[in-house]
Amino acid sequence: MIDPKPSTSPAISRESVRVATFNVLSPLLADWHLRKKVVAEHLRATDPDIVALQEVDAGADRDQGISDLLGPGWHVAWHSRTTPDGVGLTLASRWPIDKIHEHDLGVTARAAVYPWSAVVVAEIRAPQPLGTLHVVHHKPVFQFDYEHERELQAVEAARFIEKVLGDQEEHVVLVGDFDAGPDSSSIRFWTGRQSLAGMSVSYHDAWEALRPNDPGHTFTPDNPLVARGDMFSAAGRRIDYVMVRGGSFGPTLEVQSVDLIGVKPRDEVQASDHYGVVAELTTPVRAPGAWG
């Protein structure tokens, strides 16, 4: 964990939170020594309060690496396992993290091969009236033909979230690189369009809330790093998400804005093969299910 700088300012009230997710592409690939500066510029311009990062350097100097990307003063919740070459995932917050819960998603033999297949739930102490935010960093398997595993992983992760929450009614924000498009069964499960394994949940997709007619592809061969990479032959997809948990009457936080991160190169350097997503979420004027 990176300790924040001491502050003498009075306690502040926050009714909104900026949440982002960005797969920055392994530092072992595509000229990281050039891309690192560009990734940092995009992230700092986005100015998130909470950000999930995938494919970052999770080696001995990992906290310094996050400071290099985001600046000082961040609290960090790492996925505990990495690839053999030290690439992993992290969730960073400007606000303190009380507890970190992790659950392995090796739901089949072929899914268990990939150490990043896990879900992390961080209890983040945001200012009031937001209060405690349960931020979920979900990472299923990536292969096109592994949707069966993504289904199992979605159900496993959703059950784990409910176990962590218990009877608490705090906000839950679900983020990450899900490696599945909005019409896939695993995303349809997350967004309440279908049940799986006798279970149903309701998470509301920030992009869909404000831009339902915009494909918003986050992984596309229009990106030069995708065109250079090993998945260049498939059509563009939207596979990176910010979602808000809801109940019978809708999400507990409203989406005020949503945008992509890292689309345009800087100095002819593309940040990543993914575009990230950032959403501004705010507390509603009244709880869902209450008449105005």
TrEMBL record:
Gene3D superfamilies: Endonuclease/exonuclease/phosphatase. It comes from the Bacteria. Its cofactor is Mg(2+); Mn(2+). It comes from Nocardia acididurans. GO terms for molecular function: endonuclease activity. Residues 20-274 form the Endonuclease/exonuclease/phosphatase domain. Keywords: DNA damage, DNA repair, Endonuclease, Hydrolase, Magnesium, Metal-binding, Nuclease. This is Endonuclease/exonuclease/phosphatase family protein. The keyword Transmembrane helix does not apply.
